[in-house]
Amino acid sequence: MQVRFLPFLVLLFALCPFISKSQKTAQPEYYQLSIYKYSKTEQEAVLKQYFETALVPALHRQQINRVGVFEKIANDTAAVKELYVLIPLKNPGQQELVRQRLQKDAPYLSASQPFREANYKTPAYDRMETIWLKAFALMPALKIPALTGQKQERVYELRSYQSPTEQLFRSKVKMFNEGGEIAIFKNLNFNAVFYGEVIAGCHMPNLMYLTTHENKEDRDAHWKSFGSDPAWKRLNTMEEYKNNVSHIDISFLRPLACSDI
Protein backbone atom coordinates (compact mmCIF):
# COMPACT_ATOMS: atom_id res chain seq x y z
CA MET A 1 0.00 0.00 0.00
CA GLN A 2 2.78 2.44 0.88
CA VAL A 3 4.61 1.73 -2.40
CA ARG A 4 1.45 2.39 -4.44
CA PHE A 5 0.70 5.58 -2.51
CA LEU A 6 4.16 7.08 -3.04
CA PRO A 7 3.74 8.01 -6.75
CA PHE A 8 0.49 9.81 -5.88
CA LEU A 9 2.25 11.89 -3.23
CA VAL A 10 5.07 12.74 -5.63
CA LEU A 11 2.53 13.90 -8.24
CA LEU A 12 0.58 15.92 -5.66
CA PHE A 13 3.65 17.79 -4.43
CA ALA A 14 4.71 18.43 -8.02
CA LEU A 15 1.36 20.04 -8.80
CA CYS A 16 1.21 22.20 -5.64
CA PRO A 17 3.09 25.21 -7.08
CA PHE A 18 0.78 25.28 -10.12
CA ILE A 19 -2.37 24.95 -7.99
CA SER A 20 -1.20 27.76 -5.71
CA LYS A 21 -0.37 29.99 -8.69
CA SER A 22 -3.78 29.44 -10.30
CA GLN A 23 -5.54 30.35 -7.06
CA LYS A 24 -3.62 33.61 -6.77
CA THR A 25 -3.96 34.67 -10.43
CA ALA A 26 -7.54 35.91 -10.69
CA GLN A 27 -8.62 37.40 -14.00
CA PRO A 28 -9.03 41.19 -13.69
CA GLU A 29 -12.46 42.69 -14.17
CA TYR A 30 -13.23 45.54 -16.52
CA TYR A 31 -15.22 48.61 -15.49
CA GLN A 32 -17.51 50.78 -17.56
CA LEU A 33 -17.77 54.19 -15.89
CA SER A 34 -20.38 56.44 -17.49
CA ILE A 35 -20.74 60.09 -16.53
CA TYR A 36 -24.04 61.78 -17.37
CA LYS A 37 -23.82 65.58 -17.52
CA TYR A 38 -26.93 67.70 -17.24
CA SER A 39 -28.07 71.18 -16.22
CA LYS A 40 -31.78 71.03 -15.35
CA THR A 41 -33.61 69.57 -12.36
CA GLU A 42 -36.08 67.90 -14.75
CA GLN A 43 -33.19 65.98 -16.30
CA GLU A 44 -32.02 64.84 -12.89
CA ALA A 45 -35.45 63.41 -12.12
CA VAL A 46 -35.53 61.48 -15.42
CA LEU A 47 -32.01 60.14 -14.94
CA LYS A 48 -32.54 59.01 -11.36
CA GLN A 49 -35.82 57.33 -12.27
CA TYR A 50 -34.09 55.58 -15.17
CA PHE A 51 -31.30 54.24 -12.97
CA GLU A 52 -33.62 53.14 -10.16
CA THR A 53 -36.51 51.61 -12.09
CA ALA A 54 -34.92 50.51 -15.39
CA LEU A 55 -31.15 50.17 -15.63
CA VAL A 56 -30.13 48.74 -12.25
CA PRO A 57 -32.97 46.16 -12.08
CA ALA A 58 -32.22 45.09 -15.67
CA LEU A 59 -28.52 44.63 -14.89
CA HIS A 60 -29.48 42.59 -11.84
CA ARG A 61 -31.54 40.34 -14.11
CA GLN A 62 -28.32 39.78 -16.06
CA GLN A 63 -26.56 38.76 -12.82
CA ILE A 64 -24.58 42.00 -12.66
CA ASN A 65 -25.16 42.73 -9.00
CA ARG A 66 -22.48 45.25 -8.01
CA VAL A 67 -23.65 48.34 -9.86
CA GLY A 68 -22.57 51.72 -8.56
CA VAL A 69 -24.77 54.79 -9.04
CA PHE A 70 -23.45 58.05 -7.64
CA GLU A 71 -24.12 61.76 -7.74
CA LYS A 72 -21.47 64.43 -7.48
CA ILE A 73 -21.69 66.21 -4.14
CA ALA A 74 -20.90 69.48 -5.94
CA ASN A 75 -24.17 69.12 -7.87
CA ASP A 76 -25.81 71.16 -5.14
CA THR A 77 -24.20 74.33 -6.50
CA ALA A 78 -22.69 73.43 -9.90
CA ALA A 79 -24.12 74.68 -13.18
CA VAL A 80 -23.13 71.47 -14.97
CA LYS A 81 -24.15 68.53 -12.79
CA GLU A 82 -22.97 64.91 -13.02
CA LEU A 83 -24.29 61.44 -12.24
CA TYR A 84 -22.03 58.38 -12.42
CA VAL A 85 -22.78 54.74 -13.23
CA LEU A 86 -20.15 52.07 -12.58
CA ILE A 87 -20.69 48.62 -14.12
CA PRO A 88 -18.27 45.71 -13.55
CA LEU A 89 -17.81 43.32 -16.48
CA LYS A 90 -15.87 40.10 -17.01
CA ASN A 91 -14.41 41.37 -20.29
CA PRO A 92 -14.94 44.28 -22.72
CA GLY A 93 -17.00 42.08 -25.04
CA GLN A 94 -19.63 41.58 -22.35
CA GLN A 95 -20.76 45.17 -22.84
CA GLU A 96 -22.23 44.38 -26.25
CA LEU A 97 -24.01 41.34 -24.82
CA VAL A 98 -25.46 43.51 -22.04
CA ARG A 99 -26.70 46.03 -24.62
CA GLN A 100 -28.32 43.34 -26.74
CA ARG A 101 -30.10 41.85 -23.75
CA LEU A 102 -31.40 45.27 -22.66
CA GLN A 103 -33.02 45.70 -26.08
CA LYS A 104 -34.96 42.46 -25.52
CA ASP A 105 -35.84 43.11 -21.86
CA ALA A 106 -39.52 44.10 -21.80
CA PRO A 107 -39.57 45.51 -18.22
CA TYR A 108 -36.47 47.57 -19.02
CA LEU A 109 -37.92 48.93 -22.27
CA SER A 110 -41.11 49.93 -20.49
CA ALA A 111 -39.46 51.55 -17.46
CA SER A 112 -36.81 53.34 -19.54
CA GLN A 113 -39.24 54.94 -22.00
CA PRO A 114 -39.08 58.48 -20.49
CA PHE A 115 -35.28 58.29 -20.69
CA ARG A 116 -34.98 56.74 -24.15
CA GLU A 117 -37.79 58.63 -25.85
CA ALA A 118 -37.30 62.09 -24.37
CA ASN A 119 -38.22 64.98 -26.65
CA TYR A 120 -35.32 66.52 -28.53
CA LYS A 121 -36.07 69.85 -26.84
CA THR A 122 -35.90 68.28 -23.39
CA PRO A 123 -33.25 65.53 -23.55
CA ALA A 124 -32.59 63.35 -20.50
CA TYR A 125 -29.02 64.65 -20.30
CA ASP A 126 -26.75 67.10 -22.12
CA ARG A 127 -23.70 64.88 -22.73
CA MET A 128 -22.46 61.48 -21.63
CA GLU A 129 -18.86 60.33 -21.26
CA THR A 130 -17.79 56.69 -20.92
CA ILE A 131 -14.46 55.54 -19.49
CA TRP A 132 -13.18 51.97 -19.70
CA LEU A 133 -10.87 50.60 -17.03
CA LYS A 134 -9.03 47.36 -16.36
CA ALA A 135 -8.66 46.35 -12.71
CA PHE A 136 -5.21 46.27 -11.14
CA ALA A 137 -3.56 42.90 -10.55
CA LEU A 138 -3.58 43.26 -6.76
CA MET A 139 -7.30 44.12 -6.66
CA PRO A 140 -8.76 42.28 -9.65
CA ALA A 141 -12.41 42.52 -8.59
CA LEU A 142 -14.69 45.35 -7.49
CA LYS A 143 -15.40 45.31 -3.77
CA ILE A 144 -18.47 46.62 -1.98
CA PRO A 145 -17.29 48.88 0.89
CA ALA A 146 -17.74 47.80 4.50
CA LEU A 147 -19.54 50.94 5.64
CA THR A 148 -22.43 51.10 8.09
CA GLY A 149 -23.61 54.71 7.92
CA GLN A 150 -26.48 56.14 5.92
CA LYS A 151 -25.77 56.40 2.19
CA GLN A 152 -26.64 60.09 2.02
CA GLU A 153 -23.94 60.87 4.60
CA ARG A 154 -21.15 58.98 2.84
CA VAL A 155 -18.29 60.52 0.90
CA TYR A 156 -16.87 58.53 -1.98
CA GLU A 157 -13.67 59.88 -3.49
CA LEU A 158 -12.94 59.19 -7.15
CA ARG A 159 -9.38 60.06 -8.11
CA SER A 160 -7.72 60.19 -11.52
CA TYR A 161 -3.93 60.35 -11.76
CA GLN A 162 -2.54 61.45 -15.11
CA SER A 163 1.05 60.75 -16.09
CA PRO A 164 3.25 62.73 -18.51
CA THR A 165 4.45 59.67 -20.47
CA GLU A 166 3.56 56.00 -20.96
CA GLN A 167 6.70 54.91 -19.14
CA LEU A 168 5.94 57.08 -16.12
CA PHE A 169 2.36 55.85 -16.18
CA ARG A 170 3.64 52.27 -15.90
CA SER A 171 5.78 53.46 -13.01
CA LYS A 172 2.70 54.76 -11.19
CA VAL A 173 0.78 51.51 -11.83
CA LYS A 174 3.75 49.58 -10.44
CA MET A 175 3.84 51.92 -7.43
CA PHE A 176 0.25 50.97 -6.61
CA ASN A 177 0.81 47.25 -7.09
CA GLU A 178 4.34 45.97 -6.45
CA GLY A 179 5.32 49.22 -4.72
CA GLY A 180 2.72 48.74 -2.01
CA GLU A 181 0.43 51.77 -2.34
CA ILE A 182 -2.66 49.54 -2.48
CA ALA A 183 -1.43 47.76 0.65
CA ILE A 184 -1.10 51.08 2.46
CA PHE A 185 -4.66 52.06 1.59
CA LYS A 186 -5.85 48.65 2.75
CA ASN A 187 -3.94 48.82 6.05
CA LEU A 188 -5.46 52.24 6.72
CA ASN A 189 -9.01 51.03 5.92
CA PHE A 190 -9.75 53.31 2.98
CA ASN A 191 -12.47 50.87 1.83
CA ALA A 192 -11.44 51.00 -1.81
CA VAL A 193 -14.03 49.89 -4.37
CA PHE A 194 -11.58 49.53 -7.26
CA TYR A 195 -8.21 50.49 -8.67
CA GLY A 196 -7.83 50.44 -12.44
CA GLU A 197 -5.89 51.66 -15.42
CA VAL A 198 -7.86 53.57 -18.03
CA ILE A 199 -7.80 51.73 -21.35
CA ALA A 200 -10.18 54.12 -23.12
CA GLY A 201 -10.79 57.70 -22.04
CA CYS A 202 -9.96 61.33 -22.75
CA HIS A 203 -7.20 61.86 -20.15
CA MET A 204 -4.83 59.00 -20.93
CA PRO A 205 -2.42 57.84 -19.79
CA ASN A 206 -4.16 57.76 -16.42
CA LEU A 207 -5.40 55.50 -13.68
CA MET A 208 -8.43 55.86 -11.46
CA TYR A 209 -9.51 54.54 -8.09
CA LEU A 210 -12.45 54.95 -5.74
CA THR A 211 -12.22 55.04 -1.95
CA THR A 212 -15.19 55.32 0.41
CA HIS A 213 -15.80 56.94 3.78
CA GLU A 214 -18.63 57.27 6.28
CA ASN A 215 -18.63 61.08 6.01
CA LYS A 216 -16.34 64.04 5.29
CA GLU A 217 -14.73 63.96 8.73
CA ASP A 218 -13.93 60.27 8.26
CA ARG A 219 -12.45 61.02 4.84
CA ASP A 220 -10.24 63.83 6.19
CA ALA A 221 -9.01 61.66 9.08
CA HIS A 222 -8.04 58.85 6.71
CA TRP A 223 -6.03 61.12 4.42
CA LYS A 224 -4.30 62.66 7.44
CA SER A 225 -3.20 59.21 8.56
CA PHE A 226 -2.11 58.39 5.02
CA GLY A 227 0.11 61.46 4.80
CA SER A 228 1.91 60.60 8.02
CA ASP A 229 2.16 56.85 7.41
CA PRO A 230 5.82 55.66 7.50
CA ALA A 231 5.29 53.19 4.65
CA TRP A 232 3.90 55.95 2.43
CA LYS A 233 6.73 58.30 3.32
CA ARG A 234 9.27 55.65 2.29
CA LEU A 235 7.43 54.83 -0.93
CA ASN A 236 6.93 58.46 -1.88
CA THR A 237 10.66 59.22 -1.69
CA MET A 238 11.84 56.29 -3.82
CA GLU A 239 13.71 57.47 -6.90
CA GLU A 240 12.07 55.00 -9.32
CA TYR A 241 8.65 56.56 -8.68
CA LYS A 242 9.63 60.21 -9.07
CA ASN A 243 7.58 62.47 -11.37
CA ASN A 244 5.12 59.76 -12.38
CA VAL A 245 2.01 61.93 -11.79
CA SER A 246 1.49 65.20 -13.65
CA HIS A 247 -2.14 65.99 -12.81
CA ILE A 248 -4.76 64.84 -10.30
CA ASP A 249 -8.54 65.15 -10.60
CA ILE A 250 -10.72 64.51 -7.55
CA SER A 251 -14.50 64.07 -7.56
CA PHE A 252 -16.47 63.71 -4.34
CA LEU A 253 -19.51 61.51 -4.78
CA ARG A 254 -22.32 60.00 -2.75
CA PRO A 255 -24.27 56.86 -3.61
CA LEU A 256 -27.90 57.00 -4.65
CA ALA A 257 -30.44 54.77 -2.91
CA CYS A 258 -30.46 52.35 -5.87
CA SER A 259 -26.69 51.86 -5.78
CA ASP A 260 -25.32 48.44 -4.81
CA ILE A 261 -22.10 50.10 -3.70
From TrEMBL:
Q: Which InterPro entries match?
A: Dimeric_a/b-barrel (IPR011008), NIPSNAP (IPR012577)
Q: Does the keyword Signal apply?
A: yes
Which keywords accompany this UniProt record? Signal
Per the database record, which ranges form the NIPSNAP domain?
156-259
Gene3D superfamilies membership: 3.30.70.100
Q: What SUPFAM superfamilies does UniProt report for this protein, alphabetically?
A: Dimeric alpha+beta barrel (SSF54909)
Q: Which residues form a coiled coil?
A: none
Please list which residues make up the signal peptide. Answer: 1-26
Q: Which Pfam families match?
A: NIPSNAP
- Protein name per the record: NIPSNAP family containing protein
Q: Which organism is it from?
A: Niabella soli DSM 19437
